[in-house]
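Final report, Chapter 2: Outcomes

The project's central promise was a pipeline that accepts a single protein chain and returns its three-dimensional structure in a standardized token representation, suitable for archiving and comparison. That pipeline is now operational. To close this chapter, we reproduce one record exactly as it appears in the project archive, with the input sequence first and the structure output second.
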Amino acid sequence: MSVINSVLVDVQKLFKVGLQSFFNSNNMLDINILGSEETSEGLMLFLHKNLDTDLVILDLNLPDEDGLELIPQIRKQFKNIKILVLTSYGDYKFVGQALKNGADGYLLKSNSEEDLIDAIEEVMSGNTYLAPGLHITPPNGKKMISLKKSTYEDRFVIKQKLTTREHEVLELITQAKNNKEIAKELFISDQTVGVHRKNIMRKLGVRNTINLIKFAMENQLV
């Protein structure tokens, strides 16, 4: 296999340093790391400047836009680039959505070095790679059993709870707009806005608008 020009997209600096070191010491693949980025905006600028990029190694949790939304943008503008998701999120919903959006492979940061090598070899050969233990549907076709929620959920997981419309409503709520103002801007009824508002608060576990705005700001949801 020829040299694979790659870019790492992840906010964890030490992780990227470790990954770079691994590729430098590995004799099975010839990986040339052209650079690294922390944001979707930075990545898109990078790709436009580095048209010889072959592979994007992408985390899903980015500060400006989550990777699930970024994948189809990469696919649309750079059809020949391979996209390998390397993340901490193993929920089948994320896996399935990433592949549906155009990712070529998906593995976890907890997977082995051998799995990473296999993943790169597979996607660069034109195949789809799914790491051992991952699923795109509930295992055995059964509904996943909800475990007790952690007292802390990161921004990426929280954001996935909301629909696109709920995100739009939430952003306008944080601008201190009332239901009628939001309805006028989104061309929907104020009753519909009220339903969205209630659903957002239920999903995020808050009881009033003040706490909702505070929660959204603290978790960078808008």
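Archive annotation: The first helix runs from residue 13 to 25.
This record, like all others produced under the grant, will remain available to the consortium after the project formally closes.
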